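Batch manifest line 283
LIGAND: D-glutamic acid
JOB: complex structure
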Amino acid sequence: MTQAQPIGVFDSGHGGLTILAALQQRLPDQHFLYLGDHAAAPYGERTPEEIYARTQAAVELLFALDCRLVILACNTAAAVAMRRLQQGWLARTHPTRRVLGVLAPMVEALSGRAWTGGQPLPWHRRTARSVAVFATRRTVESGAYPREVAARAPSVLVDQEPCPGLAGAIERDLAQGALADMVQDAIQRLLARHPSEPPQAAVLGCTHYPLVADAFAAALPAGVRLLSQPNVVAESLERYLARHPRFHSGTGEPRFLTTGDAPRVSALAGRFLGWSARFSGVP
Ligand code: DGL
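JOB STATUS: finished
ARTIFACT:
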């Protein structure tokens, strides 16, 4: 099969590569086109209006490059822009194309219930009654995680903690020690609100944060389960493609585009992920 219609994967910068890695592992027969808006990262400190406008422009570009299905591999974009994109613009301008996010699959995993319709999902056994979500300021302010989990599973308590500056610091390749300090601070702030009983599970609700997953794992109290958003998203896309075979892309090597400085972005991506991703500038 040709590589004519790749599945688009979009993030503000490097974070979505953590999702892409899981997608490629789970769905090796699909062809992905990654777009990082490195010129505008981090999104977490931008206004909702800016996030919406940049996300819409990115999706438009991926559609123009023949993607029929685009994954917003960015919690901030999904939390802030997804509903507006899907409810108005997408149906009006691209009725046959689809945009999926990373937030809905994670909410399904936390609640054990379907995003649409709310029916119980046999493949998600809900095991945590209390969950900590670490995310960007804008994702936290959107209230999307606690609201959407509560709508499906009111007994699951979701507490959120913003990690201001962390995604930007990862993009700038700050030293590991400094990144670990930022992680530790966020965890301490959250734990201070739960002195007698820490949450049972934690979600890294920003796709950049798995790049410092070791720092989270080291600083969280023993027994707190760290749930993997990349794996949850990859499993969810596999099920989606089984239900909607028309979005299968066919095989092909992944391609990487950036709005930023391609050589610098390529070098950093290789360091973070341990595999080489050669970025080109956007056409
Ligand atoms: N990686 C994105 C997220 O999942 C955005 C981080 C940022 O650009 O601030 O939220």
